[in-house]
């Protein structure tokens, strides 16, 4: 692994790193497409791209970038490193393997190999000055008034926001009856809506619908619980312990005192993550970017194109960074504080979320089955239900004004 150090220098520095670089914007081109032909990106537009492997990692090349045939991931990495004047340090012996499976493990050695195979720093700098190279700020929308009058919204964020299925706090009041059965069922129905909304949101944002179905399922399987926590915080979902325990059915099934205590600890962790997000006063645009970062994770198993997913996540990170810098200029640490919340989301146990919110509705139906069914369901979905617990299924519908 490599850590980012301060500024770019003529020779790659081995100074100790301070923080991990997380942002990799693809300024050229419209979201979701390679950046086209620029002074630094000399892929032959209009010509058939030769069947050449990336000279850096061996993945499939997308053309000639900055003087050498590379994949989109290595092109993005090299451009970001040069444009942001970054240097890295190697935690090994400066000879880490750089291939399709290890390219993200050491940024120092990856950059070293980029330079070794002939990628040119000056080509990146020339491209930076070209008017044909777009920046996140170029995609300013005229419809920012629709999202709280925010003066800065990139085109990418605007597309994310258009997919938002509900306004903040719309459903928060539905579960406030927390001491009776109706309140419990309202909690479960809200949870069902939040999960369904997360899937529908994903189906309507840039890039996700273009992925293979198996990749869509893999990404949602990996990220659904994190998306659920973000949605719970975004809509101010009530998380009082008593109705949650009742919804989980702990009152109806024997459980040892130790397991009850452990379960309540999991509830507390869930509550803490939601409260920390609410304390940051995350706005809708930030939530959209955070959800996109969470969704497009290369940690998902079985992805057919890991580099493509990584590049989308980088776009999401940089869109968030640019937005925060323009929208909150007096909060220089806000971007970092937002990103630091994301690793903590995985602390929330997905089996506990299932037990708390979904067992009452779907019994032993695996969440993965529900996710796949939702992906294939179109804009409406009849939620499975337990006949002894409800006299009707939950029918969910999606539209731009809310599910």
From TrEMBL:
GO terms for biological process: cranial skeletal system development; response to retinoic acid. The keyword NADP does not apply. InterPro entries: NHR-like_dom_sf, Nucl_hrmn_rcpt_lig-bd, Nuclear_hormone_rcpt_NR2, Nuclear_hrmn_rcpt, Znf_hrmn_rcpt, Znf_NHR/GATA. The keyword Zinc-finger applies. It comes from the Eukaryota. It is found in: Nucleus. GO terms for molecular function: DNA-binding transcription factor activity; sequence-specific DNA binding; zinc ion binding. Gene3D superfamilies: Erythroid Transcription Factor GATA-1, subunit A, Retinoid X Receptor. One of its GO terms (cellular component) is nucleus. Keywords: DNA-binding, Metal-binding, Nucleus, Receptor, Transcription, Transcription regulation, Zinc, Zinc-finger. Residues 51-126 form the Nuclear receptor domain. Signal peptide: none annotated. Its main location: nucleus. Residues 152-378 form the NR LBD domain. Residues 19-44 are annotated as: Disordered. Belongs to the nuclear hormone receptor family. NR2 subfamily. This is Nuclear receptor subfamily 2, group F, member 5. It comes from Electrophorus electricus (Electric eel).
